[in-house]
Amino acid sequence: MPLTCRGRVRGQEPSRGDVDDALGKFSLTLIDSLDTLVVLNKTKEFEDAVRKVLRDVNLDNDVVVSVFETNIRVLGGLLGGHSLAIMLKEKGEYMQWYNDELLQMAKQLGYKLLPAFNTTSGLPYPRINLKFGIRKPEARTGTETDTCTACAGTLILEFAALSRFTGATIFEEYARKALDFLWEKRQRSSNLVGVTINIHTGDWVRKDSGVGAGIDSYYEYLLKAYVLLGDDSFLERFNTHYDAIMRYISQPPLLLDVHIHKPMLNARTWMDALLAFFPGLQVLKGDIRPAIETHEMLYQVIKKHNFLPEAFTTDFRVHWAQHPLRPEFAESTYFLYKATGDPYYLEVGKTLIENLNKYARVPCGFAAMKDVRTGSHEDRMDSFFLAEMFKYLYLLFADKEDIIFDIEDYIFTTEAHLLPLWLSTTNQSISKKNITSEYTELDDSNFDWTCPNTQILFPNDPLYAQSIREPLKNVVDKSCPRGIIRVEESFRSGAKPPLRARDFMATNPEHLEILKKMGVSLIHLKDGRVQLVQHAIQAASSIDAEDGLRFMQEMIELSSQQQKEQQLPPRAVQIVSHPFFGRVVLTAGPAQFGLDLSKHKETRGFVASSKPYNGCSELTNPEAVMGKIALIQRGQCMFAEKARNIQNAGAIGGIVIDDNEGSSSDTAPLFQMAGDGKDTDDIKIPMLFLFSKEGSIILDAIREYEEVEVLLSDKAKDRAILKGKMIPSYIINSNPEMENEEQSSPENDSQNQSDEQVSSSSQEVDLVDQESSEESSLNSHPESLSPADTDNVASISPSEQTSDPTENHETTNLNGECTDLDNQLQEQSETEEDSNPNVSWGKKVQPIDSILADWNEDIEAFEMMEKDEL
Ligand code: DMJ
User: Fold this and answer.
1) Which of 195, 332, 384 to mutate to test the pocket of ligand 1 (most atoms within 8 A of CB)?
2) What is the pTM of this model?
3) Of the listed 32, 35, 172, 216, which one is catalytic?
4) Averaged pLDDT for residues 501-507
5) What is the rounded average pLDDT of the residues 66-85?
């Protein structure tokens, strides 16, 4: 927990749900980072760390853990540690005392995981109790019916290594059996697998299929199992799946989920961050071109938001704003650099490191991003940050002689643990499966770009990778210019649809008639929204079909405009005064009135509580809030009324703090403060909303330090800038009456404009591109455009529910608006106490003064480090 400088102990912190299943009171980070120490040439520290593991770690805890996470992080960590321990011992200097103790521990853990495989299918239960196993009443697990494909299909490297290191074949057998079962269950016509499967019946529970969350490392382990074990059947399976992925999921540079039964239909309009590992896997497979393309697209998303958001849409908007410092993109960057030798990838790595140091580094480590748009932090540094991110970034820049062993002799597990390739010829007691009889030779056009070919086709061509990246340079900022031109041309020609999108009424029979003629059908969704789908071939004529296209285009633009108007992004409140210096960034809700912080410079000022605290009448302490940012409590009157009262008292901004005790942006969806239904143009100052837990951080700070200065902005500012290098630290916008358009930052404005362009133009492209590909797919799959399945639709309702795209279950999306009298948070606040991961910021766990006291030493050291630009 890098913000509060403590370890996260399961049971001692409020539960965060599934994500905590990785924690088993077994010193996860210590074990997961063992082999990183050796890679970083910290041999002495490795020796100490191994001793600590042997001395302190207990694997027999009464705690329910994820089988998948325990395998990749703990079993993998112990085996990686063992692999490098024996390598060091053989060299004769370090680890001379080592006697396979880590391996013994790994074996003990392996046996603890085996009861999970006690199912008819051989697919493991997703969770196991380390002490009591499965199904016994004390175990508190064993009733689950489903698991994810990656959860069941990411065992073979660790289990086979354990078998081969120890000679106990049972582990490899169990992992193979699970893989065999998944292979049997693949959807036979598409050769794809779904995201979740019933461990008893083998039925697919979620039939969507991609290369990211839920499936990712299943594919990775098929290819790597072939590399490590030399078993052709794994390569044949991988190639079959890879062919299907490239046929259906890969839409370079995008990778989009589809349905396993209808693989021509996209299942989503967004991508998750976990798929960023895929270019790395494509390099290992030898398919460099699409790897370069997808990697470049991801890099542009990163350049836009500093980090890869957990999920982002096909037009590169943030879909889920969290970023837990995932390593996948760094991993792919490393492999691409190894494959191409192109220094461009070193520049990419440099950007990653700079962003980590600028935005994530805190005195006790690196903090996950709660929201990449605002730069706010979460008190969390997952073990994969040291296990993978550090390793890959170090290796990217390391020369051969920087590493004390030959890294080429090892394979990386999905958690970047190192397993020696010599295992392929050790203890091979398990017979290799021959599936060649059921394996159909593939049309190998996907494999034209495999490693040997690239060598032959582009011997030492330094411009090879660049020539593939070049056309994608503006893919994020100006998606698919071809589509834009087509639509613009169509509009320039003056052609207008017979019915304009803005005039359309779903209850008007004449309108419905026109829609029908244009091949547009109307679907009423269960949630009350109306969805439009165009089937070009159902139009009365080709001219009507074109009209339909224009109508759909207008509708998509209208809908996207409405969404933008109604969904302002969240804002940031950054505490900039001593001793915070910008390190504390709080996620805040915007207001639909007052100064728009995305168009104007940030507002910086000292805070003062207003009297009365609810701000519902003329302030009795105007002298205290004059020229400051007033703190006001939510409730009793409209937000706009509060804003007017503090503005009249001379405040330069306002922060409304939620009166629902315990509420937090971790657990409640942010909302925008709505106006009062009247003209709010008279409100000139910026207003932001903080939930109670975030608000109490400021209130605690005032109690401790009296003078607390904050910055209200659309995105947290770099601490170097805050120190006065680029903006003066006097109060900006000190006179709200002076506020006018001229004060807007041109930089922000152009950014803003281009954001708008991106969004609308890519919608245009979506339609044009999909329309043309749809025409061809319609011929072969006449039923394929069912409304629930297709993306080629326009939804008229602006508010779309955001679902969690990956294994965690949190969202901070701004998805509603609220008036001050609204009481919607009441229920949430009653349950939040148990579930809020950041409760430690509140008074109950550790008061702010003690956190800050803890920090003082770190801050000094940290400032030294910053000076040295470490
Ligand atoms: C890691 O634990 C592994 O790489 C896993 O396969 C999926 N992703 C996480 C980190 O994001």
Assistant:
1) 384
2) 0.66
3) 216
4) 77
5) 98
